[in-house]
Design goal:
33% helix; eight-stranded parallel beta barrel; TIM Barrel
């Protein structure tokens, strides 16, 4: 009886290790992202002329030699635009969803009372022009095809260094199928502790990286506060997966995490030493 229990436990442990196993073969582009700090939504201040995810915030990041993390979603007419929230309440003071607006209509709104508007992904890529690496977060609510298709249509013409990441594992599966050469990362956090509304079962699966067997990510982007998570540490220590910390908001927080991650996405300060 005891032997059967031990065998069952060993089988379950092995199954768990297989389920959370990321991609083991190394993407030759992966190391090119090392040694950079990544400005979260650009080098921004929402009370300034350069709010988050604006062309000016990206211009400032490029000028100061920082990589950039940015958010991509699509409009009603399937244009890939750079904006974090799915609606315009916080950024523009308007109770409208980006998915309900066509791109030409979206141009009317200004970000955080500045002169900056919501840029298209194509505009951002033209501005950056390969000068710094990009971490492109794909904002996908449900099915990935429309968002990934619109983003990839623009990105495949871009010669600069970029990778994609998403909380939605099916976006990574889409990219693995259609563009396997592109570096891809699984975003995650402790959704319950962050009090994010949604399915507890779904968030349990995402927190513990239980879709890795399907997505086979090249890196894991994890909220630094929850870096002691078991699945995250197995990926980092056993499988030697690259990791990205988000979002680092002070030099002290960076110092506390610099040994635990490979890449660092920062906001609200200027990091003093290279990652």
């Amino acid at each position: 009886m005891l032997l059967n229990v031990i065998i069952l436990i060993l089988i379950l442990v092995l199954l768990y290790l297989l389920i959370i196993m990321p991609k083991l073969s190394k993407n030759p582009r992966l190391d090119n992202f090392d040694g950079w700090f990544y400005a979260h939504r650009g080098l921004h201040n929402n009370k300034s002329e350069a709010p988050e995810n604006s062309l000016l915030s990206f211009k400032k990041a490029v000028e100061e030699g920082y990589g950039i993390e940015l958010d991509v979603q699509i409009t009603k007419d399937k244009v890939a635009v750079v904006h974090h929230d799915y609606d315009l309440k916080r950024s523009c003071g308007v109770d409208k969803k980006i998915s309900d607006l066509e791109y030409e209509d979206l141009k009317e709104y200004r970000l955080f009372k500045s002169q900056e508007r919501i840029p298209s992904l194509e505009e951002v890529l033209a501005l950056v022009a390969g000068k710094v690496p990009l971490i492109v977060e794909l904002k996908i609510l449900w099915k990935p095809g429309d968002t990934c298709g619109a983003a990839s249509k623009v990105l495949k013409r871009y010669d600069g260094l970029y990778c994609i990441e998403s909380f939605n594992p099916f976006g990574l599966v889409w990219y693995k199928k259609h563009f396997p050469q592109i570096v891809r990362g699984q975003l995650s956090t402790d959704f319950n502790k962050e009090k994010i509304e949604g399915s507890k079962m779904q968030y349990f699966i995402l927190k513990h990286l239980l879709f890795n067997f399907l997505t086979k990510p090249d890196f894991i982007a994890y909220h630094h506060k929850y870096k002691k998570g078991l699945s995250f540490n197995i990926c980092r220590r056993l499988y030697k997966t690259k990791t990205a910390a988000w979002t680092i908001k002070s030099q002290n927080v960076f110092n506390d995490n610099k040994e635990d991650f490979d890449w660092f996405i920062f906001e609200g300060f200027h990091p003093e030493n290279q990652a």
